Amino acid sequence: MSDFLENYTLVGEKLGIITYPSPVLSKKAVPVDLFDDSLVQLIKNMLFTMYHAPGIGLAAPQVNHSKRFFVIDTEYSREEIVDSDGDKTFKLGDFKPQIFINPKFLEKDGTIVHEEGCLSLPGYYEEVTRAEHIVLEYQDIHGKKHIKKASGLEAICIQHEYDHLEGIVFIDHISLIKKNLIRKKLTKEKKSK
Ligand code: NI
């Protein structure tokens, strides 16, 4: 197991999240071949960014690195705290970060429909049909191969993040009419910024 995953603490740098439609989000990412310190640092920062967003998954292309890896955590806790002035903050805990480098699906089975969102498409939620159970082969931050079996939300999250490596966003799974509407709105929002 990787050292920093064992006792993950929330330290890192907040990275900018690329929003749709940006070219990097529709590009097929390239495999990771160098398992060095800069990869570890980038992953730490991605986790930090994901937890603070907050989100349950973040893929490298979303932070402008067109590389085949993503991070997820479908189990951490997020508690809202209101101080005496009425200001809201969040207490994050029980981190169970997982990192998947150069992932490949070995099996997909069943179907499950779930409403998905994406940090690259803020404010949009759509129902997407995915496989309910998956088996994934991947490498850890040392380049060592592992097998991951997942079901339900964890499987959904892995498939959503994997799509980012293929240049696919979740609205690519919905009707073209709906997708074009969302695309137009987001492009407009970007221009008015
Ligand atoms: Ni996403």
Report on the architecture of this protein:
- The chain is α+β, with helices and mostly antiparallel strands.
- The protein has helices at 3-6, 37-52, 152-165, 176-191, and strands at 57-59, 69-72, 77-82, 88-93, 98-109, 112-116, 126-130, 133-139, 145-151.
- A 5-stranded antiparallel β-sheet has the order 1-2-5-8-9, with helices on both faces.
- Nickel (II) ion binds next to helix 3.
Describe the secondary-structure layout:
Elements: H1 3-6, H2 37-52, E1 57-59, E2 69-72, E3 77-82, E4 88-93, E5 98-109, E6 112-116, E7 126-130, E8 133-139, E9 145-151, H3 152-165, H4 176-191
Antiparallel strand pairs: 1-2, 2-5, 3-4, 5-8, 6-7, 8-9
Bound molecules: nickel (II) ion.
Nickel (II) ion binds next to helix 3.
The succession of helices and strands, N to C, reads HHEEEEEEEEEHH
The third-level CATH topology is: Peptide Deformylase
| Largest sheet report | 5 strands, antiparallel
- Strand content bin: 25-35%
**CATH architecture heading:** Alpha-Beta Complex
If strands are numbered along the chain, what order do they take across the biggest sheet? 1-2-5-8-9
Ligand species:
nickel (II) ion
| Total number of domains | 1
Low-confidence stretches: none
Number of strand segments: 9
Number of helices: 4
